[in-house]
Amino acid sequence: AILFISAEKLDFKTQLPIIILPSIGALAHGVIFGPSTIFLLYFLPFIWLGNAVLVRFMSLNKIKQWPFFGRVAVASILKSSVLFLVAYIYIGSQLVPAIFLTSMGAIQLITALVGGVIAFFVIGRKA
What we know:
Number of strands: 0
Shape: globular
Helix content: over 70%
Low-confidence stretches: none
Oligomer: single chain
Order of helices and strands: HHHHHH
Distance between the termini: 15 Å
C-alpha cells in the first residue's frame, strides 16, 4: 500500500527509500523465507526494480488519467512479472529453491493488488 500511496503523493527522489528499505528489512529480520531468506539477496536488485516499475507506472501523467484500480492492476502485473521472470531464470539455473517461483509471482501479484485496495481507502480516491 505504501508504494501506491508514495506514487500518488511523493516525487521519485522521496520514493526511493520506500522502494528500497522494506526488502532490506525483510532480509535483515529473516521473517519471510526462514532458512531460505539468504536467497533473497539474489532478488534485492530486482525487487527494487519491480517496486520502481510499479511506482513509476502509477506516477506517469498519461496513466494518471486512468481509473485508479486500472492503474493498480497494470502496475501490479508489471511488478510481479519482473519478479516472476527473474525467479524463473534463477530456478532454471538452480540458484534458488523452487518456492521462490510462487513467492515472486502469484504472491507478489496478490499482495500488490491488496496493497492497491488498501491505498485506495487510505488516499480516499474514486476508482
